[in-house]
Amino acid sequence: VTDECFNVLGVSCIEKHRRVELMTKGGVILATGGFASNIAMVEEYDNYWGDFSDNIRFTTIPSTVGDGIVMAKEIGAALIGMGQIQLLPLADPVTGSTSNIIGEGTIMYINQEGKRFVNESSRRDVLAKAILKQTGSYCYVISTFQNSRMDSDYKNNYHLYLTDLIASGAVVQADTLEELAEKIGCPVDTFVETCTNFNKYVAESNDPECGRVVFPDNAALEMEGPFYACKRAPAVHHTMGGIKVNVKNQALAEDGSVIPGLYAAGEVTGGFHGSNRLGGNAISEVITTGRNAATNLLAE
């Protein structure tokens, strides 16, 4: 809700089929999140990824559709970095889930042809772009127990049991490499050779195939099995662009002036993370910008 000068006075919303206006004395803080769940909006602003896979998914909750950004833009707010969109490389290709996986991290990725295609220790954007170029725009994460990140009860990082992950189809298990290749439908001989070469590169800390030089201690595959494969694909994960704000988290107009009464915090804002947000930094962002916005609103 604004006056004729676009000073923000409150919020108008629909509640149980009736319009409600909530007025404020100090202003409004927009904290509605980004637009990762709005694929049409992602495609509208994207200037990096190009043509997405037709079945691109998102890892975020369905409500992150960019409505706060749209509302702010309608009253003249400037936007920044809207084309900077982050894809998570290893999401479930059907649901976008990030939890139904074992073996995540810098271990071995293969394509449908049974070959490695990227340095697995690369940045998220490099990995995602490489996966999108593969047949079907997906890959398989290959692991054995020692590099699967499962605990002694065979639960993954998200406390999901291996038996349940296998039952759901998220994880494919086999006793031999040959059997695993057959189950995921890739050429057996090529897949076995890829796995053998990968272990050699780990032992020598040198990867002439994909240029990798850093391997964790548990990177190698245990050749006695069992072996696991998780089908993974990139999914929209975070949108770095949003409302342009100043150091007080006040929303700014296109000419750089403050929009009176409008503050923004969290992923609805833009300009904090550049083109490739570091994992975990969104948590510090929402805490810092939320507190900053509230403190300055009260002070005003």
Question: Mind explaining what this structure looks like?
Answer:
The structure is a single chain. The protein is α+β, with helices and mostly antiparallel strands. Helix content is 25%, strand content 21%. The protein has seven helices and 13 strands. It has helices at 39-45, 67-74, 124-132, 162-168, 177-184, 188-204, 281-299, and strands at residues 10-15, 18-23, 28-30, 57-58, 79-80, 85-91, 108-110, 139-143, 172-174, 227-239, 242-243, 250-252, 258-264. Strands 4, 6, 7, 8, 9 and 10 form a six-stranded mixed beta sheet that branches. The protein has a three-stranded mixed beta sheet with strand order 3-13-12, covered by helices on one side. Strand 1 (10-15) and strand 2 form a beta hairpin. The longest helix is centred in the C-terminal third of the chain and has 19 residues, at 281-299. It starts with 9 loop residues before the first strand and ends with a helix.
